[in-house]
Amino acid sequence: MTTIALPARNEIRNNAATVLAFAAGMIALPFVFGNGYYLNTLVFVAILALPALGLSLLSGLSGQLAISHGAFFALGAYGSSILAVRLGIDPAISTILAQFIVAAIAAAIGAVVLRLRSHYLAIATLSFAIIVELLIEEWSSVTGGMQGMIGIPPYEIAGMSLTSDKAVYLVYWPITILMLWFALNLSVSRVGRALRAIREGEPIVDSLGIRAANYKIGVYVVSSVFAGLGGSLYAHFVGFVTPATGSLMFAIDIIMVLALGGFDRLWGALVGVALITLLNEYALGFADYKRIFLGVALIAVMLVFPRGLLPGIIDLVGSGLRKGGADARRA
Amino acid sequence: MLAARDLGKSFGGLTALHNVSFDVVKGQIKAVIGPNGAGKTTLFNLIAGTLRPSAGTITLDGKTISGLSASAIGASGIARTFQQPQVFRSLSVAENVMLGGHRFNKAGFIACGLGLSFTRREEEDLHATASKWLDFVGLAEFSSRTASELSLGQQRYVEIARAMATGAKVILMDEPAAGLDDTETRQLGDLVRQIRATGVTVLIIDHHMDFIMSIADSILVLNFGEWLAEGTPEEIVGSETVINAYLGSVEDA
């Protein structure tokens, strides 16, 4: 019998190697460059990468966009904060509990919305995002209302509080990289294959005895937990949450990140988050005008590069190189 | 093994299928023929669970499958190929066939995300199964090609390999010879006989009478959504009702 190389196996190995190299680089960074404000910025990159990776997993595999990643970021942030502040639960445990809450809510939404074979996910999750935002603003006895919550405790590891940027950096980045590795593995696995197939023809997947709806719900739950985890990490780093944490605008920012880094590539999501965070931090000091600028940029990107800016540029450069190569051979 | 009793399907006021009963014997190739609009594809959609019958029941090995979801019917041992080949175009040929055997493996989101070693063993076994069926249909060399690169005829064979990989007891084939020339049709006939030789039952719709006559063990004739005749190819060819209703109309055309 003919034997054929099994791509998924090699891909998992390549993923592990690339991710390890990346992890080594990120962990070495503060020891090479020393402490500095840049570590604080990079902590935010690690945090914001989580909802972006989650959304990238969803859009890259199932081809759907959700507007609920801001809401789940908020649920992760508020959930863990409320458990830690009001009930005195250890932040690490409250973070894990908050993810179960996020997963349960995402599963409930998914079970209702994703059984329908259509593109209602974006609209249904938009309504959910609005509900969560209102709930956070109005349920002030628990959430602190418009004032938000302060005094959210940092994580503690072996009796040491994670308060310095460097300590947080050295804990958060490994977490984010582990989640990236998880997402990469998932996308080359049988689950990823089933989701890519569902994207092309859900009825055919069903006809093969596979419950397509369960996979769609599953990836939505996993994707939402990425956002929820980001929210929890955020709350225990900055120490306060307000209704602006994970607002609808935040959800749209995350979509913008994917428009930049590519809708179907996980590394692209990471690059997109890094670029947007750095732009915010160092270049775009013009506050409210920024949104107009980014909004127009988003529309332009979507028109020219529907798969995302970076993949579009890579394709352009790639075809340019191939063309150049062909010209060179002819010459 | 596969049996339909008093099967009916109407779309609003339009009756697509009315009071159709038949049996398919295990290990046989059974053909469903009839003029356009006779309800053949509707019958397949009812068996596969894409549509739910308005009346009647379908049983597989004595168990009622009508009314189950399409995925439950797929898992019960019925696979199909489509008039227009429905491969997953952006996936590789091997991946297409691996999806046929997908339901036998267990690894879920967490095991796959963690890359646990049993998930890799599962994948290797599944890949071996896929390779076996790609060999069976003669497409082994195309395994790592993207499915959309293959010709429509080849895509049809990918569908067949995928259906075999589901471990189906019955395969429904909707006009598999459409668009094939004589040589290709003969090759397809050989393949369908090979499928039967593995113990899988085949239910096949086609318009090529020569093709049907050469491979079918039994033929069911539908006309305007109703049972018209059933029997061996010889009986069908000799039946006056069939000649009047169907074969005659083809000659008129």
UniProtKB/TrEMBL annotation, chain A:
* Main location, first listed in the record: membrane
Q: Which InterPro entries match?
A: ABC_transp_permease (IPR001851), LivM-like (IPR043428)
Membrane-protein topology: Multi-pass membrane protein
Q: Where is it localised?
A: Cell membrane
> At the top level of its lineage, which domain of life is listed?
Bacteria
Q: Which CDD domains match?
A: TM_PBP1_LivM_like
Annotated GO CC locations:
plasma membrane
List membrane-spanning regions.
12-31, 37-58, 70-89, 95-113, 120-136, 170-188, 217-234, 267-286, 292-314
**Cross-referenced Pfam families, in alphabetical order?**
BPD_transp_2 (PF02653)
Q: Which GO terms describe its molecular function?
A: branched-chain amino acid transmembrane transporter activity
User: Is-annotated flag, keyword Membrane?
Assistant: yes
Membrane among keywords: yes
Keywords, A to Z? Cell membrane, Membrane, Transmembrane, Transmembrane helix
Q: What is this protein called?
A: Branched-chain amino acid ABC transporter permease
Species in which this protein is naturally found: Flavimaribacter sediminis
TrEMBL record, chain B:
GO terms, molecular function: ATP binding; ATP hydrolysis activity
Tell me which domain of life the UniProt entry assigns to the organism this sequence originates from. Answer: Bacteria
**Which InterPro entries does the UniProt record give?**
AAA+_ATPase, ABC_AA/LPS_Transport, ABC_transporter-like_ATP-bd, BCA_ABC_TP_C, P-loop_NTPase
* UniProt keyword Signal present: no
Q: Which SUPFAM superfamilies match?
A: P-loop containing nucleoside triphosphate hydrolases
Q: What's one GO-annotated cellular component? A: plasma membrane
Keyword terms: ATP-binding, Nucleotide-binding, Transport
Domain ABC transporter, first and last residues per copy: 2-249
**Per UniProt, what is one Pfam family of this protein?**
BCA_ABC_TP_C
Q: Which CDD domains match?
A: ABC_Mj1267_LivG_branched (cd03219)
Designated name of the protein: ABC transporter ATP-binding protein
Provenance organism: Flavimaribacter sediminis
